[in-house]
Each structure stands twice: as C-alpha cells, then as structure tokens.
Amino acid sequence: MELNYVAFVVPAFFLFLGLEYLAARRQKKGHYFTFDSSIANISVGIAERLMSLFISASFYAAFYWIYNHFALFHIPNHWTIWVVLILATDLVWYWYHRLGHEINFMWGAHIVHHQSEEFNYTVAARITILQAFLRNLFWCILPLFGFHPSLVITMLVIHGAYSFFTHTRIIGHLGWLENIFITPSHHRVHHASNEKYINKNYGDLFVFWDKLFNTFQKEEEEPVYGLTHPIKSNSFMWQHFHYFMEMLEGMRRADGWRAKLKIVFGKPEDLDQNIRKDLEVIFLPHKRQLKPTFRFKAYLTTQIALCLTTLFALILFINYLNLTEKWFIALLIVITLINCGALLEKRSWIFHLEYTRLLLMTGLISYEWDSPELFVLSLIFVLLSSSSLNVQKWYFRFVYH
Ligand SMILES: [Zn+2]
Ligand SMILES: [Zn+2]
User: Whole-model pTM?
Assistant: First the structure.
C-alpha cells in the first residue's frame, strides 16, 4: 500500500488562496473576501472533495469499461492526439456547462457554484458532489469516442486545475490572451448577474466555443456577483438542496405530467420565482442578528481547519483505512460542515448537532480501541448533560456572545 499524494491539492489550494489574499490586500482590496462567504464556499468544497473520494474510482472504472466495450473508434496514442483531446474535452465541458444553466435538474446542481456574492479562489472550490457526478457522466463521452481512459483522466486533471485560476478579481485584462483563452475577466462575466452578462461565457479553457455558439460577452461594466435572486443563507444544507426543493414544490403545484416534466427538464427562468419565497418562510425562519465576535470566528475557523486537516489525512492515508473507518470520518466531516453552516445562520438546533458529533467521535474511538463501554459511557454523559439547561446556556453564551 502507498500514500495518496493527491492529498497535497488541499495545501496547494490554500497556498494560492493565501497569495491571492495577500495580493488583494496589497491592492487595498481586502474586501474581496468576507468571512461568512469564504467559510461557506470552503465548506461546499470540502464536502465535494470528500464525496469524490468515494465516487471517482467508480467513474474511472466506468471510463475503462466504456472504452473496452463500446468505443466507437480506437484512437492511437500519438502526441497529436493530445491536441484533439484538449479540444474535445473543452467542447464537452462547454455543453455540460451550458446545459447546466439551461435545464432545471442540472441547474439544481450547478446553482451552488453561482450562489457566492464574492468572487475569489474560494468560489472555485464551490462545487457540489451532484455537479461532480453530472460532470463525470458527460466525461464518459470521451472514452466512448475512443480516447484512452488514462489520457482522459490526465486531461481532466489539467482541465480542472485551469479553471481554478480563472476565479479571481485581482487579475485584470490579459490582452491578446483573451482572444484565445478563458481568462479571469471572461469568467467574472460568467459569474455576474448584470443583465448583459447573464448566460454568457460557458467555456473553461478556450474562448472560441462561446464565440462559435454566440454566448460570448466581454467584461465591460463592473460585474455584480451571485444569483439574480440571491439566496439569503449560508446554511450548508439549504445551499445544496434549496433548488431541488423548489423543483419538488413546483412539481407538486403543477397540473398534469406534462407540466411536472417541464419542471424537471424545463428552463430555470420558467420556474415560478415565488416558490423560493414560500419555502424560505418555512425553512429559513428569522435568524438572530448578532455581530460575530472574535471568539465566534475563532470557533468556526478552528472547525473548518480541523475538517481540512482531517480531509488531508483521509486522502493521504485512504489506502490504509477500511470502509467503516472511511465512512465514520466522512460522516464526522459532513456533520461538522452542517454545523458550521448552522452556526453562520445562528441556529439554535446546532446544540444537538454538537452532541451528535461528540457521539460519533467517541463511536469512532470505541470502534478503533474495540471498547464499546467507552461509547456507552459517552452516551450516558450526552443524555444527562444535554438535558441540562445550564449546559445549553453556557454553550450559546460561548459561541454567540
Ligand atoms: Zn456556470
Ligand atoms: Zn466558476
């Protein structure tokens, strides 16, 4: 068995994020980053990296299966193929991305990437596992055409890394390069909700697909980032699932199967915008307006840092862990992320989630040490202490005041 060095993507991400932050401060643009937004973006990214650990191997196997059984052509492994492959990958991306904006069920997955009202490298991480899943389905086209899976996988890594660097406001216009590549300027337009910027610049690497299919727009006025109808929440769960809930509600209200199917496969702009408002009344009750204290920020940052360290260790040592250990750790991270989102929203039910997490942690230790009595003891402690009002009061005083 060996270490999985892919884990170093995590520190590399923070290295570039740190450099971007320093450059922004230098340009007196520290306001490009806000605490809540950065935490929310990074939380979404952690969950995606985590879940990808469980699904990417299956997709790589699927690429080989498709290539071995259904490949339409057997494209030779020659250096010129890289040029064809890079163009093919970018074209598949263009349509995957464009359909992600034009078909409701795909927009339900992609919308999360566009919720951020900030635009910096943390937004590049803002991809959900649902989006990664759909994207992998599109990538199956490449081995189907006859590109060898090992080439496809290498290309996807390069392609994925490139798009990270287009999520920044600190790089201005890049002259002639803008006629060939998708640059930060082009991608800023894609993330903007200004009227003239909507549904523009879907490309990832090359700009000519947008020009060819009439979706290109140059960056002119200052972009306003985020959705046309911004979501007013940093809740981890709401961010991930609000659009699917809107679709379900839309289907419930629609008359007949034709109308219901139109909700799934129709255009996002045709979905009744009032549904979101109605759901917000139910699922986003008025949150406490508390100014975040230094202690609150420190508590949240520590949790995200712990999640990242755990994720890094999980990826690095993945080959040494059994399935139970992997799932325990993954669950622990996901609960912590839900917890962080709820903290940003100042929800009171996080108190119970904190206890669930405590139980999970002792559960993991009991499993590793093969001592169920430790778990029973912690369960008794949790049951006794969680019912004490004093503990609840102390907790809320600690995190919110
Ligand atoms: Zn998009
Ligand atoms: Zn983007």
Answer: 0.89
